[in-house]
Amino acid sequence: MSGNGFDAISQDIANLDINDGARDPFAMWDTAPPPAPKLKSKGVIAMDITEQFGNAARQLDVGQLVKDPYFTLFESVGALEIMDRKMDSGCLEPGETMEDQYDFNQELLPEEIIGIIDQLLCHEMAWHMGHPLAQTIFTSLYIDKLLSPSPISIQQTHFDSRHSFDEPLTLRILRAYCLGLIKTCFYVNSRVKTEHFYEEEDFVTHTFNRSLLEGIEHNDIFQFLDETTKLLAESETLPLDIKRALDCRLQFRAQFLNTVELADSRTSDSLVKQWTTLGDFLPYLNSSSKLGKSVPTSFSVKIQRKLASTVPPRPIVQVSQEAAFDHLERLCRDAAVAVEVLTYYDSHSLMTFVLLFQARKPQPSVYVRTLLQHYLFADMVILGTKSIRHILDDDLAATVLPNDQLLDRDNDEIEVPNDPRHQMSVRMETFRARAAGSYLDILRTICQNRCRIRRGLCHTIADWDNLQLDSEELDVELRVFTGEKPIVDPEISTDPIYSFPLSSWAYFYKLKQMEWIVQMGFELETYQPDELAGMYWYLQYLAKTRSRHLERIRGFDMRSFAAARKNPKATADKMRAYLNAISFINFSTMEASATYGFAGALSCLFTVLGRLSLIKAPPRPYSDDTMRYEVRMKPFSCIGLPELIPFDELTKVVVQPEESTIDLLKFAAESAMGAKKGLEVLSKLSAKGAYCQGSHDSWLNNIKACLKACIFTSITIASVKKAVEAAGKDGKPKIKVEIPPSEKGYHDWWVVPKVIPVP
Amino acid sequence: MAEPIPNPEAKAQAESYLHSLLGKNLRITTTDTRMFLGQFKCTDSVRLPSPPLLYPTPLPLPMPLQLLFHVTNANDQKDQNIILSQTFEYRLPPPPKTPQEGTITQDLTSRYLGLIVVPGEYITKIEVEEFESQLTPAQKEKYLAAQRQEGSIGGEAA
């Protein structure tokens, strides 16, 4: 098709929003399509115009289009071509029938029931892994029979109408299992759909206009499973091992169904137990699957022809039993861990929990991640019990405003407008209204998949930059009401120094996120080997900036602490608030200094490797260093503070041409040593001291992995140094360098090169 | 039908006719007896050195989708594509496994497909849906005649 005007196309391309991840490519409508129009209805008649149409079309010039003015060429690209085997799922081969000639009345061997059930479990996990139902569970002819037409009671779910009176036990077991399976899928699908995720990228929630047994009550299905289990127990014809295997499958399904139904509640204490109980079924489920006999004829790719779908037919997804069990086992384990987020300790521990949970390898599955989102944010009540204000005030108190009058809830009670407490309350409310969204956005962002986390953070830092500016204005206004006395120290500055608590807080989080963006860049292998020196330099620059900023916050915290101690009325509780804030500042400073020490060491090491031509830049015929730097730093280019360093300046500080190679390596070794000491101190902290209550184990593993990476860096630096010294002045060192891919190193955020001697 | 003679008047008429169909519901039957019902969005011209030779295949097919044509020189006809939006696919259900006595009425099974393009070579019949009340007397007469013919002969050739 041509002649449609390029304007329309370019307009459409301009309107294309690649960020819009939640778009559903499977359906023209997000919801179910309208019911099919009736072919015979009164007053509407169909006139045969085959000939007229053909004659008229023949009059057109070759290539001429007749089209609806609102219809664009761009849209037409998405049209399914009828009779094209690859596009048209309804296209039949000559002599091929629409439906499979499958006999639902045939009796199946108990072994075959096991085989079908296990295949369905593989399909279910394939769906959890991100494949559409149409290519997984919906390829089962039994499931198709169950769901189409949509049943509204258990009695309507017989595979064959003749079964209403006399259903073989084997088919009854299969039916009960299938009912449980679909209802389980219903809960999982509803959960995922309610939360934020990326359709296609993470998960496909599309049900192809099939209802997942919404019409049948949970209890009915659960009971049906239970009764079937009893029937099976009474049966005396089955061999014992087969009986046990079938029993295990029915019980497993009942447990799975029950768990996903309960999983939505945020108060249940038994949730962890539910998940572990479910996990306990797996070993026997797996080992007994060898008893099964597969029935490939009971699965068909043809069912896609009956599903409402605007996409071409696709093959059945094959996930191995091993992979399926592996996924399910992890799902149970991760879900049990996710539940622990519901125990709240403090705001920092909460963020650490979410961050480390998401960093688990491999990343928890989409369903578990959406459960975590549900626990965190459902109904805008954090963890089901805390208001957003509670979390936000906790966080402010534990950083910049320990025991501060600004956070005093009694201020809200004052209604006299000229009372400073009333004014404070009003302004703090303004601040909370502005900051709450930004704060929750950090948590929301880190609940996404790894690539999206980095991408999301790139957006949130711009928001935090604005938040910092807005809070600065509020800080200035609040000063009038708090009567804050500035620090006057002519040695530092001639101007009085104020604390700026709210904007300080915003700056702290902004810096933290900027560090994460760079670190996630290493994890996601965004940077080329020759860029690592520059990016690690930038990381140490950010961490150092954070450390200095924390220094400033500590100064003000200490000052108010000292003032409070002079007050004889101060209670132990209030003293604890100061100590807690100062302890967090100390912890974060320690962590920042370990980061900048380690990053500094790596930056110098990579610079040296670049100098020795052991790391070479790949050929880049279409870009240069300035342009690439611009692209790399794009997320930071809009940030006011810390200012982006111009490329020339950055090159100078990274390359350090005035330093000798040996000096650089010496500095790198010292820096790595410092970082190692810092990490060792961190690794000895308690859960409370490290602000990782509820996730201390993961946190410790994380720190230990950093420590290993750091030690390995020291070793690499030493071997490079030895090789350089051995090589003499103009000779080349007899080593080569390998950069391990992400996930192969000790820690994804620390890319440590490996040095190998060459003869 | 011979080689189309350039005739500006006929061309304008043809264009206006096709334009009048835009947005209307068309029912397009394809060579495999499926029918597609959707809103007419777009069509393009046919590049034909000679008219296609159409003849019915000997396959007996159930009513009312009896017209199964075979296109001989398919290569020449690829360009008459019709695009329909919000389309539903209708097909005859498979014959029942147990033979039944007497006449049976079977509902066509349908499903939603969305935007589709039907290549001209597979089109055997095009119908437009009209409101009976809005037909001109001449159109009505023609429609009834066609109905009668279909009833008596049980099919028609192109």
UniProtKB/TrEMBL annotation, chain A:
A Pfam family cross-referenced in the UniProt record is TPR_NAA35
Origin: domain of life:
Eukaryota
Primary localization class, coarse: cytoplasm
List the GO cellular component terms.
NatC complex
Q: Which residues form the NAA35-like N-terminal domain?
A: 63-221
Where in the cell does this protein reside?
Answer: Cytoplasm
Q: Where is the NAA35-like TPR repeats domain?
A: 338-751
List UniProt keywords, sorted A-Z: Cytoplasm
Similarity comment: family membership: Belongs to the MAK10 family.
Q: What is this protein called?
A: Probable MAK10 Glucose-repressible protein
From TrEMBL, chain B:
Q: Which SUPFAM superfamilies match?
A: Sm-like ribonucleoproteins (SSF50182)
- InterPro entries cross-referenced by the UniProt entry: LSM_dom_sf, LSMD1_Sm, snRNP_SmB/NAA38-like
Instruction: Give a GO cellular-component term.
Output: NatC complex
Name of this chain's protein:
LSM domain-containing protein
Q: Which organism is it from?
A: Phialocephala subalpina
- What's the source species' lineage? Eukaryota, Fungi, Dikarya, Ascomycota, Pezizomycotina
